[in-house]
Amino acid sequence: xATVNATIAGRQFRLACEDGQEDHLQALAKSIDQRIIxxxxxxxxxxxxRLTVMAALMxxxxxxxxxxxxxxxxxxxxxxxxxxxxxxxxxxxxSAAVVNAFNSAAERIEGITRKLNQTVGNGxxxxxx
Length: 129
Description:
Elements: E1 2-8, E2 11-17, H1 22-43, H2 48-123
Antiparallel strand pairs: 1-2
């Protein structure tokens, strides 16, 4: 288990983290510290506890918004996947309909050709097709 010394709101904190996560934890601490600095600049000296709570609430709000956005995106992805399946099914049905139409047309042409061959065969002996 690794430890990190981080400064938040002018106070030093010794924080434990998993090995390899030191830089990430340090960056998180700097982010919180910067939020508190920004709040202090905006609201003045209203107390470290209030500033820390306000920073935590801002982070919680961002997290909530990100969770809602992620949920909406997951729903959109699911809807797009459903639409893709429906579209694929429609494309397969359309393809089958085109194949059936061509087969039907080919059968009709073959039937007409047979009739013409019979008609021509009775007359001159020259076959068509």
